[in-house]
Amino acid sequence: MKYLDPQQIIDWKERHGKPRRGSDLVFQVSELTKAWEVRPQGETFIGDHVVVRLATKRNEPAVFGEGEPPEGMFDPERMRHSDFRVISPIDIEKWNAGKWRAVFFMTVDGNGPPPVMCLAFLNADPGRAIFESWQALYGLDDPDGNVRIAFIRRVRSSNPHAYAVIVGPDPNKLGEQSGNFFEFVSRYQVMTPDSSENLDRFLKSYEDHERFLIGPAYMPSLTAAPRPMLETVLGKYSLVVREA
């Protein structure tokens, strides 16, 4: 997988402006791919990067291919601007401003409330604004899974407890969209705890309640304890857990 620095997106848009025709957009996509680069080894805050993927729709569940795209797939003569759509709950400007840095969980043993998953941001206002926007779009609950939460476990061979958290769109919802080419934008963060106890407890509580809440938290610094902002939580009923 390759990663795209958000500043590169901004610079690229300023260089090319808004595409007027499908052929302009295809050219811009081609130019943009030249700026893609593998995340530098040892980089700490990969939550600052945007994962971009392209998929095609054929009125059936999404199937992602491997290797090089088919010949002519990005032929400007065969494409229109209306063929492209961006599918994502991620507001890049808000996420850049919020500076997502960590994830933590809150659970209660027994028959207490459902578990809470918090995304900790260095800047409180844009972090809160992300969830306010989701509430405005989806309501207090998201039973349709417009915001997809995924855990990828054992992402580092040096730490068996390390896991990635991915926040973004659900690629399986392509069948509900119109268009031929789709761009997915997600954010993710890698956590490197000393044990899996907290994550295991959260997943067990989610399994028991069959739901969880996700909300923002303010983390004044990388060493400070985060402060939950639970007035803007979103109710969730599904998540994805996979092994790397």
Summarize the structure.
The protein is an alpha/beta fold and 244 residues long.
Low-confidence stretches: 1-6, 19-59
Order of secondary-structure elements: HHEEHEEHEEEEHEEEE
Biggest sheet character: 6 strands, mixed
Distance between the termini: 13 Å
Class derived from helix and strand content: alpha/beta
How much helicity do the residues have?
10-25%
Q: Counting H and I runs of at least 4 residues, what is the number of helices?
A: 5
The number of domains: 1
If you compute it from the alpha carbons, what radius of gyration comes out, rounded to the nearest whole angstrom?
Answer: 19 Å
The strand count comes to 12
Shape estimate: globular
Mean pLDDT: 77
Protein topology:
Blueprint (H helix, E strand, L loop, with lengths): L5 H11 L5 H12 L17 E6 L27 E4 L4 H7 L1 E7 L9 E6 L2 H15 L2 E2 L5 E6 L9 E6 L12 E11 L5 H13 L2 E7 L8 E2 L5 E3 L3 E4 L1
Structure commentary:
24% of the residues lie in helices and 26% in strands. By secondary structure, it is of the alpha/beta class. It has one domain. A hairpin with an 8-residue loop joins β9 and β10 (227-228). Residues 1-6 and 19-59 have low confidence and may be disordered.
